Amino acid sequence: MQKFQISTRAIGSEYPPFVIAELSANHNGDVELVKKLMDKATDCGADAIKIQTYQPETMTIRSDNLDFYISHGIWKGRSLYDLYEAAQTPFDWQEELFDHAKAKNITLFSTPFDASAVDLLTKVGSPAFKISSFENTDLGLIKNVALRKKPMLISTGMADREEIENIVKVARLNGCYDLLLFHCISAYPATLSSSKLNMIKFMREEFGVLTGLSDHTIGNEASMAAITLGAVAIEKHFTLDRSKGGEDSAFSIEPIELSNLVKKSK
Predict the structure, then answer these.
(1) Both ends of the chain: CA-CA distance in Å?
(2) Which of 79, 144, 223, 244 has the highest Cβ tally under 10 A?
(3) Taking the C-alpha atoms of 162, 204, 190 and 247 in order, what is their torsion angle to the nearest 10 degrees?
(4) Is 45 left (phi over 0), alpha (psi -120 to 50) or beta?
């Protein structure tokens, strides 16, 4: 039966679901808030904390062209550069955050968006890598991460069957067998009616990998349903208080909701 470990926690169908608190942009530009989020998520029972590692200039460019502005959703009217600049977890925070995680015995890993981020996360000792939906067809990035010989978790939002097949093939050809695919709807927030949770079972059977759910819906209903369908990992965006705002706060769960997710999933 397939299984692997991130830090000391085993992941597989014979274990309780691996619950990841995604901090993303909910730090509001304050490194101390990231630490508070990490500590609180751990107190709530999360198995791991995830951040993101990128710089806005490697994601997009400053431009007044409308193609570089968001036309719908919760970030409507924002330029891509301004959003990424506000949402980034700066490179010069990363070592401090991984040191905090080690001191507190917290499992922390991250999503790199380019080679410089992969190098940085390797240096600070990230025990795993997550690939976002928006980067999952960057096969050069997949290869780079696979060569680091760490577990890789990949969101499949927007990818079709052939693209997912290529993702899995490139990861395995370059030495990554500790692989998990997250079913993901790349909408922020996503609706329950669009969840298409049967993809969890389909991907597990079609590609022979562990599967989970990266859940952008409001609440925990989709996550709990995913677990009944065999999801071995759940990723949810996490904030201390939605009323305080933040780039991702609208579709993030608060401490009581995270605690409930952990208790019910186990």
Answers:
(1) 20
(2) 223
(3) -90
(4) left
Residue 175: CB atoms within 10 A of its CB come to: 12
pTM attached to this predicted model: 0.94
Question: 164 near 172, Cβ under 8 Å?
Answer: no
CA distance 136 to 140: 10
Residues 24-75: tens digit of each pLDDT = 888 988 999 999 999 999 999 999 999 999 998 988 889 888 888 978 777 7
The tokens describing 88, both together, are 């980034």
* Rounded Cα–Cα distance for residues 2 and 178 (Å): 9
Read off the DSSP letter of residue 91. Answer: H
> In sequence order, what E strands does 54-124 have?
108-112
Q: List, in order, residues 6 or more apart from 39 with CB less than 8 Å away.
A: 104, 106
**What is the token pair recorded at 246?**
């933040």
Name 48's bridge partners: 20
The sign of the CA dihedral 242, 246, 252, 258 is: negative
Residue in the structure block whose two tokens are 């996490």: 238
Strand, coil or helix: 152:
strand
Query: Alpha-carbon distance 38 to 43, whole Å?
Result: 9
